[in-house]
Specification:
By secondary structure, this protein is of the alpha/beta class. It has ten helices and ten strands. The strands form two sheets. The chain has an eight-stranded parallel beta sheet. A two-stranded antiparallel sheet has the order 1-2.
């Protein structure tokens, strides 16, 4: 799998990650968890590292932690890059919630802790900085799903010099982040995780019945999901999209997007025009 550099450290990350929103919020039965174990096993074998979760996602953190422990070491695979979030108000509440996330994900060190939807970010950032200095977390970040928050996110990136990551929505149908937020991330050396790469599935449903165009061969794409993910990776500010799935077949399809050629700006314009977005 191709890699992209985290600007603040120079560390390389594989370009396709794994989200857990809705898909990993399941019960404890073997039947519910077996496909997720297969997803994680294949993701690790194919070189994936970034696994993103949140306390907001129900049981997703606990399920992820349990399954990674069950899976154990995967021969030849790098260790997971665990990312989660703080999603509450108040310093004490934030600390308690983050400690629960550590326990649920079964880790003593979190790779990335993000302030979810900017909730009480002024309170949480000093704690994140302190924990980073102690080595409890490796990187800090902010997230939001709404276009209305992009202005505040840009301001934070440009005024808070130590934000390592920003997580935002971006896809062929939703390119609002291109206007100011992605340029701000590039200007400030902030890594970018991309949520909602398929516009919550609506983009794939729209394209599903259309035959792939001839230029898809140039990108070595055989499915629309690969086209959509390669479009995102064609933006120079993007580090890693994090599509969520509970299907091993979909995971196998997604990780192929992290291999082979990526579109240049001329090709990306062609992709936009063809998709009619």
């Amino acid at each position: 799998m191709l890699t992209r550099t985290i600007p603040s450290s120079g560390e390389e990350l594989p370009v396709i990650g794994l989200g857990t929103w809705q898909t990993f919020d399941v019960g404890s039965s073997a039947e519910a968890r077996e496909p997720l174990l297969d997803v994680l096993k294949l993701f690790r074998k194919r070189g994936g590292r970034v696994i993103d979760s949140s306390p907001m996602y129900g049981r997703a953190e606990s399920v992820t932690g349990d399954l990674l422990a069950e899976l154990g070491e995967v021969k030849g695979a790098p260790r997971p890059f665990l990312a989660t979030k703080v999603w509450t108000q108040g310093r004490a509440q934030g600390i308690a919630e983050m400690n629960r996330s550590f326990a649920r994900l079964r880790t003593e060190r979190m790779d990335l802790m993000q302030v979810h939807n900017l909730l009480d970010w002024q309170t949480h950032l000093p704690v994140l900085r302190d924990w980073k200095s102690q080595g409890r977390i490796r990187y800090i970040g902010i997230t939001h799903y709404a276009h209305g928050a992009f202005g505040e996110m840009e301001k934070i990136l440009r005024t808070e010099s130590d934000i390592d990551f920003v997580q935002l929505p971006y896809n062929l149908a939703d390119r609002e982040a291109e206007k100011r937020l992605l340029p701000a991330a590039k200007d400030t050396g902030t890594a970018v995780l991309v949520m909602r790469p398929f516009d919550e599935g609506s983009l794939l449903r729209r394209l599903h019945d259309r035959p792939l165009p001839s230029w898809a061969d140039e990108l070595e794409c055989t499915t629309w999901s690969q086209v959509c993910l390669k479009f995102i990776l064609g933006h120079p500010a993007v580090t890693c999209p994090i599509p969520a799935t509970s299907s091993p077949e979909h995971l196998a399809d997604n990780v192929l997007s992290g291999e082979g050629p990526l579109p240049d700006e001329a090709m990306r314009k062609k992709m936009i025009a063809f998709a009619g977005t």
